Amino acid sequence: MDSTIATPCPSTPKWNVDRPFLTGRFHQETKSTSGVTESKGFSVDHFSSGVDKPIGCYHAAIQELIVIDDLLFALVGIEGRYTSIKRVRGKDNSIIFQVDASMDLALQDSAKRMFPLCESYLLINQFVESRSQFKTGLVNHAFAAALRALLLDYQAMVAQLEHQFRLGRLSIQGLWFYCQPMMGSMQALSIVIKKASANNFTGSAVLNLLQSQAKAMAGDHVIRSLLEKMTQSTSTAYLGILERWVYEGVIDDPYCEFFIAENKSLQKESLTQDYDAKYWQQRYSLKGDIPSFLANAAETILTTGKYLNVMKECGHNIQVPIAENSKLTSVGSTHHYLECIKAAYDFASGELLNLIKEKYDLMGKLRSIKHYLLLDQGDFLVHFMDIAREELMKKPDEISVEKLQSLLDLALRSTAAVADPCHEDLTCCVEQTTLLKRLSTLKDLEISQTVSSSSDLEEPVSITGLETFSLSYKVQWPLSLVISRKSLTKYQLIFRFLFHCKHVNRQLCAAWQLHQGLRRLDMQGIAISVSSLLCRNMLKFINSLLHYLTFEVIEPNWHVMHHRLQSAKSIDEVIQYHNFFLEKCLRECLLLSPVLLKKMERMKLICLQYAAATQWLITYSNDTPKTGTSSEGSPNAEQYKQLKLRIPSRIQKVSSENATVIESILKFEREFTAELQSLGPILSSSSRAEPYLTHLAQWLLGVGRD
Length: 706
What we know:
The structure is a single chain. The chain is mainly alpha-helical. Helix content is 57%, strand content 4%. It is built from 23 helices and seven strands. The chain has helices spanning 60-74, 105-131, 138-166, 172-199, 204-216, 221-248, 279-282, 298-313, 336-359, 362-373, 379-387, 389-392, 401-413, 435-440, 447-451, 465-468, 485-520, 526-567, 571-588, 594-613, 637-646, 655-686, 693-700; strands at 37-39, 83-88, 95-99, 260-262, 284-286, 426-430, 469-473. The protein has a three-stranded mixed sheet with strand order 1-2-3. A two-stranded antiparallel sheet has the order 4-5. Strands 6-7 form a two-stranded antiparallel ribbon. Helix 18 runs antiparallel to helix 23 (693-700). The radius of gyration is 44 Å and the shape is elongated. It starts with 36 loop residues before the first strand and ends in a 6-residue tail after the last helix. Residues 68-359 form the Gamma tubulin complex component protein N-terminal domain. Keywords: Cytoplasm, Cytoskeleton, Microtubule. InterPro entries: GCP, GCP_C, GCP_C_sf, GCP_N. Pfam families: GCP_C_terminal, GCP_N_terminal.
């Protein structure tokens, strides 16, 4: 006999545990009270103490009755007189059933064939008890309840078998025959239970395990049907969580079993403050454990609840209408639950889109931003640049943003912009870095990978507000989902490029007016002619660039986006189309091409230096007093008259000064022409990968051919 001390297994009932359907035992006076032994090893010869004599002492017919009696108890996890139950500790904590070695060999074989069913019952019963605890979650509770219902049927079967045994109508072969229908089902469930217990599965993992096992048993209709029914019963609790999410936008998940997680630390206010705000992507997100029957609809489910939550955040309490046939009660092969989810998504998406388009006037806001930040209506900008020129000429850290804001408000009220109901949302700001440097700090843009290590990013010695001024726009929830801080920053990058191009254009126009004024005074000469030609080429360059930016890039892309937004079916499509518009504009406006952008900045700098130097044309005579200019550098009529009176009498003295002026002008011309010519190969090579550069090349490379 094994020397291991036998200890009762806490999960296995002892012999004398009351069972209402197991009473009046055969030879009840000989029953054992030793319980279930538990050890790391086992011996075939080990049996409970208290057995009067080995079963082999009895006649074969009596042995059969005793074995049937013991097996009826073993079927519900209770040790018999000549059968013992032991649990072997190890990887799988298996249960071992043993019989008296003196038992008839044929009876031993018959008994051992029944033991797998007995073991399955013990495993299932123990699983039901452990998974009925509070902490195991709703899905495990539902699974345990379904198993408990199955065990009731099983126990009823055992009670009926015992009744037949009491009537003397049950043989060992009959017992085996009647247990056959339950054998496969109980073993299949025990396999599921072993896997669930070994991995401590909860929530979605339990549902996926049941489904995978049902598919694996495709050849056995009975077992597959049983596992599918278990899946149906187990998924009821999970579908209750899902129903509240897709119909109300509420996560009612006390045990964290749902595949959607909520990050409450992310607030909607971050959309207007943080360039890298992750509110829309991470406030609600998918977790890894998604039920396989919902895998294809997971994104739709997530999005439906998100839309409902946006409307709740707007104070627009709405609930998806639920018909009797649209409740999520089962996950059958008809896939009715997927139709319900799709219907809930369509309703939530349509309601939110209508709310944002109609109540919050999304298109009106976008048109307003286009007017101001993309310079669609430039009358207010001309007036603003006139009255704010003195302030914008200062260094960025010396500029009063409050003063600029008051001047901007004045310009808006003095022009047609006052008719725009959104003009009060426009604000101004002053950056501290150049455009290229600012682009390199935005890590999500392609330019950062190309330029971040370049020495060309060194800041100029002196920059003014004209290079760093920008406009901004106040956006409220829920429009901030579409017009986020990131989107506004991209608008501002385009605005800064356009604004500086406008400034260069105004300076060159002032220089051109100067040349025209000198021509009206009959001041003809080589210097004026050369300078006039250069000024015209520079104007043609900057006007061609502005034409390309506005009419070749912004306007066509805007119309494409506008058309797409009109046909958008969800807010996510609106966000996608809007982001695509901004990305395309940034790329085609050269802001994501550092080589071309630096080339354009260099050419604009040459134009500005030349425009500032055009005053030499009216001061090249040493005797000519320095004359003032208007705000844009053009002389007034009185200065022209004084200049005209002096020139005829000083013809001989101005030749050397004239040569100096010509040399300076030619220097500007050489620099400008060299930059323009070097632009050709760059545009030609880049246009193969970026076809839109072909239009830019057509406009710019024609400059200077005269």
